[in-house]
């Protein structure tokens, strides 16, 4: 539980929110009015809204060109992973240290699974889980 957190006001702009999320390395922020919780804004919602707005303003040919762009420039070359058979704590440690939401599980450089934050929460609050 965190009692020192960043929050938003409903009057904050999209640009301010994106910049704040990047600087703070967070994906969700509460929105307050006079200290009362109004809701939450997620980075995913911001991206979806921005992309939908951008696409709506483009002519069909440009929209198709945007959608056809390869993802290669977005692929992270610095890959974090855990070996098959590693304890779940190792994946959690990497996620926390590097501020990521999942870690690939590899066996001799072959992807065999992924471990997500949800997987770790499920494991923490249910029966003991096997190694990742």
Characterization of this structure:
7% of the residues are buried. The longest helix is centred in the middle third of the chain and has 15 residues. The protein is of the alpha/beta class. It is built from five helices and six strands, in the order βαββααβαββα. The protein has two domains: 63 residues, Roll (CBS-domain); 49 residues, Roll (CBS-domain). The two termini are 26 Å apart. Helix content is 41%, strand content 23%. It has a three-stranded mixed sheet. Strands 4-5-6 form a three-stranded mixed sheet.
Q: What is the gist of this entry?
A:
With 132 residues, the chain is α/β, with parallel strands linked by helices. The protein is 41% helix and 23% strand.
Summarize the helices and strands and which ones pair or pack.
Layout: E1 8-9, H1 14-24, E2 28-33, E3 36-42, H2 43-57, H3 60-68, E4 82-83, H4 88-98, E5 102-107, E6 110-116, H5 117-124
């Amino acid at each position: 539980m965190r009692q020192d957190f960043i929050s938003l006001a409903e009057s904050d702009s999209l640009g301010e929110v994106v910049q704040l999320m990047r600087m703070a390395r967070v994906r969700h922020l509460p929105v307050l009015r006079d200290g009362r919780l109004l809701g939450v804004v997620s980075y995913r919602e911001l991206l979806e809204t921005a992309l939908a707005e951008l696409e709506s303003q483009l002519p069909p040919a440009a929209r198709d060109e945007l959608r056809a762009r390869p993802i290669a420039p977005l692929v992270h070359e610095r890959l974090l992973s855990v070996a098959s058979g590693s304890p779940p704590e190792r994946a959690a440690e990497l996620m926390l240290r590097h501020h990521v939401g999942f870690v690939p599980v590899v066996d001799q450089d072959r992807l065999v699974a992924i471990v997500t934050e949800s997987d770790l929460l499920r494991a923490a609050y249910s029966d003991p889980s096997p190694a990742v």
